Amino acid sequence: MELGFVGLGRMGANMVQRLLKDEHRIIAYNRTPEKIQDIEKHGAIGAYSLEELVEKLSPPRAIWIMVPAGDPVQQMMDQLLPLLSEGDILIDGGNSNYKDTILRSKQITSQGIHYMDVGTSGGIWGLKVGYCLMIGGERTIFEHLEPIFRTLAPDDGYGHMGPHGAGHFVKMIHNGIEYGMLQAYAEGFEILEASDFDLDLQGISHLWNQGSVVRSWLLELAELAFESDPHLDRIHGYVEDSGEGRWTVLEAIEKNVPAPVITLSLQARFRSRQDESFGAKVIAALRNEFGGHAVKEKS
Q1: 87, 111 contact by CB (below 8 A)
Q2: Whole-angstrom Cα distance, residue 149 to residue 96?
């Protein structure tokens, strides 16, 4: 199948390579020419402008956009739409907010262009093991694009979630769950590391993946991390969030759904970015005032 692909970052470039291995015809564009040249070495056809990308695709065209959520997606849509024809397909494979996706779908479909939202999970390992795809949009367009989805995903690794926005909504909740799982592993391993026992965290990670109820791919990755750095001495404990966890918490609030684990895991990420917490200083000062509890003063 023929597909235009916009965005050759860590995930995008790997996705193109996986598609090329299954002999799809890929016309690839990126703002950085060097990345286009790199992907051409794998067999993609390079396009050095969006106009060239559209010209090299046969109507009805299908273009997959893999750029950061928010303004980059909107800017790319705004540049592409005037170049497209009725019946063409735009696919947003990034982590867009599902509410933005619903609004964009109205804008795009009003011009006779089809629009699909594809929540994509798999990270840098997707090239090897495949990507889990959560897909929203018209069912008929989903079926038309199935050869692409089938190549990108492992067995049973893609599905049609519902109308526009459903794919990105399911991916948002997926990432919210991921926040909670990561936090649980983080707390467990921190308790192990703080214990009086001289514990092998890599060995424990491996052990728990052998039939344990907490076995998972994340635990496999923990084993790899501890193998290269047994006590994670080379890593600063600063954790970013890419938005989906926040959106999941906001959705829970809007729908009156209790989500304490996901909410607290998000708050823990905020705490990781503080060299010193002013809130903790306030607590220490108050405990000293009402109970005479000792405080540690800076030297």
Answers
A1: no
A2: 19
